[in-house]
Design goal:
Distance between the termini: 105 Å
Order of helices and strands: HEHHEEEEEEHHEEEHEE
Organism: Flavobacterium plantiphilum
Radius of gyration: 29 Å
Strand content: 25-35%
Number of helices: 6
Keywords: Cell cycle, Cell division
Helix content: 25-40%
Protein name: Cell division protein FtsQ
Length: 241
């Protein structure tokens, strides 16, 4: 019994050693494999601002020739940082698959408004950052003009996101003017009236009031009669013909 017990232990040790050796050998061999291809995947709704060719170029520029580099020599964190530094990209994930394919999963920024002034024109993205215009695609978002500065840009970004997230407001509000007194004027897509929105205080309630008014006015066929819709007072909507 003692000899059988010892032989069993020896066999287990040998098998374990063989498994460790094979695993180590396979891992080393896998690390030494060269990259065989590059593939780019876009996630999210907005995949039009950056082309696949642009991402490929960023990857190639920062790895000399990635198809000639061994997997263990590739700095994936560096590649991700380079992609994320692109003004159109929100975040990315770069990795190498088992079969040697360098893959980049890219999420592009989401514009929620377009600022237009005498100096420049740019988008405001969903996170409140500045995003340049794209030669590939023009987003259908509200045009924003007027007095935009460091004191009000954060609040304005929240307002733009609220419009973007609401299907009705997203289709209805096409332009916003920021007045010198920090009040807002808004313009809708299908009617001649302008919206005197007032300040951004309680803007969620003001939007709620506007949507309720609009639905009732559509049923009454009275929207075309108005020149101004006043939302400054959160308890009521005042209309001027």
């Amino acid at each position: 019994m003692k000899k059988i017990f010892n032989w069993t232990n020896i066999r287990l040790i040998l098998m374990l050693g063989l498994v460790v050796f094979l695993f180590s050998f396979t891992s080393k061999r896998n690390e030494k494999r060269k990259i065989v291809a590059i593939k780019v995947f876009f996630v999210g709704e907005n995949n039009l601002f950056v082309k696949e060719e642009t991402v490929n170029k960023l990857l190639i520029e920062n790895t000399s020739n990635p198809l000639a580099i061994e997997k263990d020599k590739l700095d994936l964190n560096k590649l991700e940082r380079k992609l994320n530094s692109n003004a159109m990209i929100d975040e990315s994930d770069v990795f190498v698959s088992i079969d040697g394919v360098l893959k980049a999963v890219v999420k592009q920024k989401t514009p929620v408004a377009r600022v237009v002034n005498d100096v420049e024109s740019f988008y405001i993205d969903y996170k409140g950052g500045k995003m340049p215009l794209s030669d590939n695609f023009t987003a259908r978002v509200p045009l924003v003009s007027g007095n935009i500065n460091s004191r009000n840009e954060a609040e304005l970004a929240q307002l733009f996101c609220a419009i973007y997230e609401d299907d009705f407001l997203k289709k209805n509000i096409i332009a916003i003017e920021v007045m010198p007194n920090a009040g807002l004027k808004m313009f809708n897509r299908n009617y001649d009236y302008q919206i005197d929105f007032g300040s951004m205080v309680n803007f969620e309630t003001k939007f709620k009031n506007y949507k309720a008014f609009f639905q009732k006015a559509v049923l009454d066929s009275t929207l075309y009669k108005y020149k101004k819709i006043d939302l400054r007072f959160t308890k009521q909507v005042v209309c001027t013909k």
